[in-house]
Amino acid sequence: MSEEHYLELCENPVQFEHASSVNNVFFDEANKQVFAVRSGGATGVVVKGPDDKSSVAFRMDDKGEVKCIKFSIGNKILAVQRTLKSVDFINFIPDYPHTEFTQECKTKNASVLGFCWTNWNEIVFITDQGIEFYQVFPDKRSLKLLKSQSINVNWYQYCPETTVILLSTTVQGNVLQPFAFRNGTMCKMSKFEIELPVVPKPAKLSLSERDIAMATIYGQLFVMYLKHHSRTANSPSAEVVLYHLPREGACKKTHVLKLNTTGKFALNIVDNLVVVHHQSTQTSLIFDIKLKEPDSAVNMHQPVLPARSIHPYRIPLAGPAVVPSQPPVPCQLYSSSWSVFQPDIIISASEGYLWYLQVKLPPAVILLQDKGKLMDFLLRRRDCKMVILSVCSQILESGEKGSLPVVATVFDKLNQVYKEYLEAEQTYTAAMESGPSRGSAAQKRPVRTQAVIDQSDMYTHVLSSFTERKGVSHKFIIAVLMEYIRSLNQFQITVQHYLYELVIKTLVQHNLFYMLHQFLQYHVLSDSKPLACLLLSLESTYPPAHQLSLDMLKRLSTANDEIVEVLLSKQQVLGALRFIRSVGGHDNVSSRKFLDAARQTGDQMLFYTVFRSFQQRNQRLRGSPSFNPGEHCEEHVVHFKQLFGDQALMKPSTV
């Protein structure tokens, strides 16, 4: 079972003073900071954040119980609420006065429910009668009201990522009014109503703050409503209803996540997955709103994977009394003291830990049998590349049992993402070359995510090792290679020559020359210089390869010098000579280049043949077999004499 835990708590949690040793623990979702507050004489505050920069400790005057405490962005200004009427401020900017200053809410008889920083110097007070948007002037130790809105408020929620505040209004609390904040402006968004479960009259339900969460999923803001089961027969289990909240336009109910059980739940978002924790069974479910269920109504989602608990976590013991051999203490998962915050935070106030929840992808490979669905799931995850490549290898290792259609599906899914990235790159490059056009937004370079599996990834990590596997039939190997090439062609992606080389090498290895001939004849393998050179090198094994190569080169009307260089580098000196003759370039090539190559092979007869060939050329062109001084062949003439004697040198022919 342990390999099936697809959720885990991060290895390095944020540690803070646990609840038993302090008066209060607060969490600020915007800065991801935990405030441990200890009262008595002066109020001691220890702030722990995701890194050392955001951690700080300080003391402040004890002016009553702290109800809420948060830093503005960058720890510049501290806001503390101690009463229902006002909020106190302390500067933490160097060289600014540290004296506290206070702002009372403007609305008479209103109670401050809380506050949210929307910028380093902008803050919103939420009262039971509306919201008040202020700008803070730390140097003047004062605030200026920018805008306010009167509305009856039951409770509120804040999404720091999008700077949107959601207010619960009306008696039942199910009419929600969002406000967006940006650069000193407050924008009232479209209000919407949450559909509450039907209950028998005269009972009435009201919407609880615990059942609502806001989060960004795939770049869009959603309000998530945890709809508990009603006693009516048609909805026996709970579900999570997602409402899409656009900046402009109406909020719409877009997705329903079926939980298939009842009880206490909590929600997180990890890597664009909705995670639903179930306390009584101590398990979690994950949902991917981009995975469509083929056999259900539009946007009704079942869990992607079966319910599993978070991976067991052990708390390392700390402190001077710790014995080195003492084992770490198991952490109580799904504890009633856990608090869950968006998007991916779990806090245990009793143990003094803040964890980030993480998704582990390898267990999904075991639990999700449908390879097409698995690939859709993996391609949307952050750290997916190596897992996807290992899945491809596993599919190919499983052999031929009807797996070719599965292989085709997987290749197509990978190449669709690859093509989309290539097109985005092309569009970006074209936009950069044409220069900025008037009125259009600056073009952003497309981000290459881990989901982009290109041909070199596939070749290096999957295909090259697959072709060398023992016990796999060569027919299946060739079928897989051709399937990948077919998929690339289908998405109009230029196939890299090393893939064609892999096909040719596999065919030659298994003496499938007839198939090689057919592939070339019917242009299944596209023409290229590297491919032509490879064919030339096969001449000794398969004589027709020479002509096939020449035909390809002629079709390419390519630079002949390059081909000669490649052949010489492979010590195929006679092949290079024959090729240069066939294209009519023999009279102009450097004799020294060929003689160097022939001598390097150590084959004396080859050197003799090449030397005589150029002597004959000299005789034909200049009436003398001797080399001109400009050809720098003196050392080769000396070498020839040492090997074969002066008499072996060709004599000038007289007409």
From TrEMBL:
<dbReference type="GO" id="GO:0031902">
    <property type="term" value="C:late endosome membrane"/>
</dbReference>
<feature type="domain" description="Mic1">
    <location>
        <begin position="381"/>
        <end position="628"/>
    </location>
</feature>
<dbReference type="Pfam" id="PF21029">
    <property type="entry name" value="RMC1_N"/>
</dbReference>
<dbReference type="Pfam" id="PF07035">
    <property type="entry name" value="RMC1_C"/>
</dbReference>
<dbReference type="InterPro" id="IPR049040">
    <property type="entry name" value="RMC1_N"/>
</dbReference>
<dbReference type="InterPro" id="IPR040371">
    <property type="entry name" value="RMC1"/>
</dbReference>
<dbReference type="InterPro" id="IPR009755">
    <property type="entry name" value="RMC1_C"/>
</dbReference>
<feature type="domain" description="Regulator of MON1-CCZ1 complex N-terminal">
    <location>
        <begin position="25"/>
        <end position="143"/>
    </location>
</feature>
<dbReference type="GO" id="GO:0035658">
    <property type="term" value="C:Mon1-Ccz1 complex"/>
</dbReference>
<dbReference type="GO" id="GO:0005765">
    <property type="term" value="C:lysosomal membrane"/>
</dbReference>
<dbReference type="GO" id="GO:0010506">
    <property type="term" value="P:regulation of autophagy"/>
</dbReference>
<protein>
    <submittedName>
        <fullName>Regulator of MON1-CCZ1</fullName>
    </submittedName>
</protein>
